[in-house]
Design goal:
single chain; mainly alpha; signal; TPR-like_helical_dom_sf; lipoprotein
């Protein structure tokens, strides 16, 4: 039996060694790959609720939108002049009689841009008078926060409000 132990011992040792070779060495842990997360795109602004707001939101005088009335197209032209810094041309357009015959909302918007144009053109008296005319149509009219904080017309428009 001792002879068998001498024969079996090397076989057992070889089996133990070989069984250790069957398992792969442990892999090194790789750091987790971070997948960049992109924030969702911002919500688009709500569509304008009125025709005058739609024209103001998309002031393109070259827009061939057949749905616009003549006065709306003229307002878009005046607004384009205003946005381009052509204040004398904006004043000329917004003073046209067609705006006094428009519906109140468009009258107010045209008077607002007319007043702004007078203000940036250093015509304080006309600026004030135009804001007064606007307030006769809509006594509750308020400039937006950005507009009321403007150094040129913010103070002139707020002084016109009845207290």
């Amino acid at each position: 039996m001792l002879k068998n132990v001498h024969v079996l011992a090397p076989v057992v040792v070889a089996l133990l060694v070989l069984s250790g070779c069957e398992s792969a060495p442990p892999k090194k842990a790789e750091p987790p790959v971070e997948i960049p997360v992109q924030p969702p795109p911002p919500e688009p602004p709500p569509p304008p609720t009125s025709r005058a707001e739609r024209i103001e939101a998309e002031p393109t005088a070259t827009n061939d939108n057949a749905a616009l009335t003549a006065v709306e197209r003229r307002f878009a032209e005046g607004l384009a002049q205003y946005n381009d810094g052509n204040y004398p041309d904006a004043i000329r357009i917004f003073r046209e009689p067609v705006f006094s015959r428009a519906w109140p909302e468009l009258q107010i918007k045209s008077l607002k841009y007319l007043a702004f144009s007078y203000c940036v053109n250093n015509n304080a008296n006309q600026c004030r008078a135009t804001f007064l005319q606007l307030l006769k149509i809509d006594p509750a009219f308020e400039l937006s926060n950005a507009e009321s904080g403007h150094p040129v017309w913010g103070q002139r428009s707020s002084r016109q409000k009845p207290t």
